[in-house]
Design brief:
Layout lengths: L13 H13 L2 E2 H8 L7 H14 L2 E4 L6 E4 L3 H16 L4 H11 L4 H18 L1
Antiparallel strand pairs: 1-3, 2-3
């Protein structure tokens, strides 16, 4: 129904997140296409990808189009929605809701490029102007 809020989808496991990354990159895909993208990166068997994608469909993380012989799967949430949810959960559970602690940890864990730092400064300036 229009206007109804989306049901809250479960958090994806690491394996499910790998599959979602492929679907976000390629768009709707068959199990074979997802497997072909994942197998060069790590040792995985086709039946594992198939089972994970079936579970993801049951959980509502993906939708399955069964109109063709080879079922086509598509992600039900966008990459931005997933990032927002996962970062929010991490922020609450590990950083006691402190964005400062999260950002400081992120910047101390991996060296940021000059371009990334310039973009962060630009975003902070925009946020500061907007908060006045």
């Amino acid at each position: 129904m229009p206007g109804m809020p989306k049901p809250k989808l479960p958090e994806p496991t690491d394996g499910e997140l790998e599959i979602l990354l492929v679907l976000w990159e390629t768009g709707p895909a068959t199990v074979r296409e997802v497997y072909d993208r994942l197998s060069p990166r790590r040792a995985i068997v086709y039946t594992t990808v198939l089972k994970l994608m079936q579970i993801m469909a049951e959980k509502g993380l993906v939708e399955r189009d069964e109109s063709q012989r080879a079922h086509v799967y598509r992600a039900r949430l966008t990459q931005d929605e997933a990032r927002h949810r996962l970062v929010g959960d991490l922020l609450d559970r590990l950083f006691q809701g402190s964005a400062k602690k999260l950002v400081m940890q992120a910047l101390s864990s991996r060296k940021a490029t000059r371009e990334e730092l310039a973009e962060i400064r630009r975003m902070l300036d925009e946020m500061t102007r907007g908060a006045k």
